[in-house]
Amino acid sequence: MQIAVEGLGKKFNREWIFRNLSIAFEKGKHCAITGGNGSGKSTFLQVLCGYIPASEGKVTYTFNNKPVPTELVYQHFDISTPYLELIEEFTLREFLTFHFKFKKLKVGLTINDFVELVYLQNSAEKPIRNFSSGMKQRLKLGLCFYSQSEICLLDEPTTNLDTAGIAWYRKSVEPILEDKLVLVSSNQKHEYEFCTESLHIPDFK
């Protein structure tokens, strides 16, 4: 999967968040997206995966040398962000059964495997609303790590994780680097030290 960004800009009301961003992303060239608070790092990721529209410029997607229609782009992405909402009324097992009706688990894995990989095997039958913030974060990251999507977008991935959780993140992200394109929005080096490319979004204000 390749992503080409040309002259991308986003504004809310009359205020530009970022402008004139051009870059190409491709598998094997994992990229750290850095910038000051309010520079638009998280917004940039949302535009990339089609959650919100760009105000100017364009993003094109190519898979196996063929253009990907905009309405099908979501099939190729998984995203973990602090603002991502989970269905907290579901138990973990109910949520995963629902989620993987729309996404595919990595080949060879079962839901039970997934639960063990994110260290939530003692909470499989508990409502997600009763999870700690760290448990929810491991769940969000696991949805990115253990799906069949080609692109993994991580926004401040170790938010709410303790020391053990950060170690889990660093250990878990390594095996996916051969299979996925990983983009990390962060100013914390330990979250993106595996990246080989970088994009710095300057303050537009």
UniProtKB/TrEMBL annotation:
Name of the protein described by the UniProt record: ATP-binding protein
Transmembrane spans: none
Molecular function GO terms recorded: ATP binding
Keywords: ATP-binding, Nucleotide-binding, Transport
InterPro entries: AAA+_ATPase (IPR003593), ABC_transporter-like_ATP-bd (IPR003439), ABC_transporter-like_CS (IPR017871), ABC_Transporter_VariousFunc (IPR051782), P-loop_NTPase (IPR027417)
Domain ABC transporter, residue spans: 3-204
UniProt cross-references to Gene3D superfamilies, sorted A to Z: P-loop containing nucleotide triphosphate hydrolases (3.40.50.300)
UniProt keyword Transmembrane present: no
Listed Pfam families: ABC_tran
